[in-house]
Specification:
With about 150 residues, this protein is mainly α. The protein has helices at about 10-20, 60-80, 85-100, 100-105, 110-115, 120-125, 135-150; strands spanning about 25-30, 40, 130, 135.
């Protein structure tokens, strides 16, 4: 990978942000925005193995959390071409964990960031608060936390 951010990894503050943002649910639940797919479990884990009625234990939730954080981290390292602070990296991993690498890759947030416009990138977090066309209070709170961490 040879990114300017190769040496960064999500620290405890970043992991705790994902845990706080996602919450823990050991029984699968439908997406809050669509009230259907994708089904989610644990700390915001989705995938073909998650379906209605699925229940897991804490250990499985933690394993999926770390796998999903690692995936989001790899995406941030691959997509971001400017140096990041630890807080900026953590914030972008939480953002990517929630929205996916594809959304990050297509975002004005990333475009501004990669142009070196850190302040402009930070301003973009607040635009990502919609699900199924509605502002979601939980996303407003999450994006505010990410922006605050990005700004530290």
């Amino acid at each position: 990978m040879n990114s300017v951010n190769d040496k960064l990894s999500v620290d405890l503050q970043g992991i705790d942000l994902v845990r706080l943002s996602e919450g823990l649910r050991l029984k699968a639940y439908p997406d809050p925005g669509s009230h259907g797919a994708p089904w989610t479990i644990g700390y915001g884990h989705t995938g073909p193995e998650v379906h209605e009625g699925l229940e897991i234990g804490q250990r499985q939730a933690e394993e999926w959390l770390m796998e999903d954080i690692a995936s989001a981290s790899r995406a941030v390292k691959r997509l971001v071409s400017v140096p990041l602070t630890q807080g900026q990296f953590n914030a972008l991993v939480d953002f990517t964990f929630n929205l996916g690498a594809l959304n990050l890759s297509r975002s004005t947030l990333l475009r501004r960031l990669n142009m070196g416009d850190y302040q402009g990138a930070n301003a973009e977090f607040k635009r990502w608060v919609y699900s199924a066309g509605r502002v979601m209070d939980g996303l407003v709170i999450r994006r505010r936390r990410e922006a605050d961490l990005f700004d530290d």
